[in-house]
């Protein structure tokens, strides 16, 4: 037991140092790859503009994937499409809370709403949860070109996928990277606030309407 406690303390110390470096120093001024990605730069493939739409709002941090943006986006969007299809299929046979679109079960409290059959289409909270998780998975945060802050995806980011989509991130990606921590990981430790949910949802709806009539 003392050995386990010591290991956890050591891990927390390592992550604390990395976090201190990231917050205080930020990406190195000499970094060539550890940069906030420019999804719409002149070198991006026209077919990958979707990557900016899906990940731009969530990847507001430096990542070494900036140097291989096209291939990273290609893999991320492939996983995102797989996740969307699986979530729609799973939600169609699930029950969903009318108050906040969480997956629910008969007889279990639904936070003031009702537990009804799920929709045959994707809910906005589920789509946002998938975007956040898939983008965190494919764009790990870095400290500099030689030090990745973490390849792991934060627990709450992974849990949102289960809560709103009734699937897991591990079902979609090749290598499981969800961790049971909310520190020393990529994807954010806290639930998105209602204001940010609304802002992202409106931007998503606006983008779709714009492209529908183009």
Descriptive account of the structure:
This protein is mainly alpha-helical. It is built from 6 helices and 5 strands. It has a 3-stranded antiparallel beta sheet. A two-stranded antiparallel sheet has the order 4-5. The protein is elongated.
Short description:
With 214 residues, the protein is mainly alpha-helical.
Q: How many beta-strand segments?
A: 5
Strand content of the residues, in percent? Answer: 5-15%
Globally, the shape reads elongated
Radius of gyration: 18 Å
Distance between the termini: 62 Å
- In which range does the helix fraction lie? 40-55%
Structural class: mainly alpha
Reported for the largest beta sheet, the result is: 3 strands, antiparallel
What is the succession of H and E elements?
HHHEEEHEEHH
What is the number of helices? 6
| pLDDT averaged residue by residue | 76
Strand line-up across the major sheet: 2-1-3
pLDDT below 50 for ≥5 consecutive residues: which ranges? 1-29, 189-214
Write the layout of secondary structure elements.
Blueprint: H1 2-24, H2 49-55, H3 69-91, E1 95-97, E2 103-104, E3 115-117, H4 124-138, E4 142-144, E5 147-148, H5 155-165, H6 194-212
Antiparallel strand pairs: 1-2, 1-3, 4-5
Features:
5 strands; 214 residues; 3-stranded antiparallel beta sheet; mainly alpha; disordered C terminus
């Amino acid at each position: 037991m003392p050995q386990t406690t010591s290991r956890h303390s050591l891990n927390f110390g390592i992550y604390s140092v990395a976090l201190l470096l990231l917050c205080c120093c930020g990406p190195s001024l000499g970094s060539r790859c550890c940069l906030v990605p420019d999804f719409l730069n002149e070198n991006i493939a026209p077919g990958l503009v979707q990557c900016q739409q899906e990940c731009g709002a969530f990847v507001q941090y430096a990542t070494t994937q900036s140097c291989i943006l096209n291939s990273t986006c290609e893999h991320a969007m492939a996983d995102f499409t797989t996740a969307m299809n699986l979530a729609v299929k799973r939600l169609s046979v699930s029950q969903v809370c009318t108050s906040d679109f969480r997956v629910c079960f008969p007889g279990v409290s639904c936070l003031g709403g009702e537990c009804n059959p799920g929709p045959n289409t994707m809910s906005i909270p589920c789509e946002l949860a998938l975007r956040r998780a898939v983008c965190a998975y494919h764009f790990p945060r870095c400290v500099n070109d030689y030090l990745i802050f973490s390849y792991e995806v934060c627990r709450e980011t992974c849990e949102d996928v289960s809560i709103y989509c009734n699937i897991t991130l591990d079902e979609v990606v090749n290598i499981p990277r969800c961790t049971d921590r909310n520190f020393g990981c990529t994807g954010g430790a806290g639930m998105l606030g209602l204001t940010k949910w609304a802002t992202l949802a409106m931007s998503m709806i606006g983008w779709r309407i714009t492209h529908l009539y183009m």
